[in-house]
Specification:
By secondary structure, the chain is an all-alpha fold. It has eight helices and no strands. It has helices at 7-26, 31-49, 55-66, 68-78, 84-111, 115-140, 152-168, 173-203. Helix 2 runs parallel beside helix 5 (84-111), helix 5 runs antiparallel to helix 6 (115-140) and helix 7 packs antiparallel against helix 8. The two termini are 28 Å apart.
Amino acid sequence: MAKIFQVSARAGMTRVVEPIARSLLRAGVSPNAVTVAGTLGVLVGALGFGARGHLVAGALIVTVFALTDLLDGTMARMSGGSTRFGAFLDSSMDRVADSAVFGAVAFYLAGEGDRAGMAAALICLAVGGLVSYVKARAEGLGMTANVGVAERTERLLIVGVGGLLAALVHPAALPIALWLLAAVSLFTVGQRMRHVYRQAQLVDVPGGQG
């Protein structure tokens, strides 16, 4: 099944960020520095604005800095490929940023008295981590799990659009987006586990560890 954020759109964004990536590399900025800066920007947007109810500003800041995921990856490719530490740092910073975003949303909705929305945000936080874990665990076992309708970019887009609509159209838009995201994320976990199961069936021997 195709991802929500289509490959063509990703390729288009990559073409946009390539000139920026070249300029930063010429200036001596490393991909790892961009990774850390992007995470700090997401933290400011989520905790400094979103958690305090400034949904439009928070969503815009988070979206802009979340795009550094494309920027640091493009820079790494242009400079000869990502290092092991760079890949580790990028994955770790993604988890920090995601936790800040959904933690801030849960905090905001709790303050608004929306317990159902807060529950949805916490589910998104937990399942989002599981989506990433399943992929990392599969790769650690020599398999792949790069499938699913909602990877990290899609998840951030959904919650970002929900925040904007909640501020500009109707407050119910954010909880609705969160429940939708929770369902899509759970479906993605199922897709990845099924994908790994099919690969494992080809290499596992009978009587092995289950």
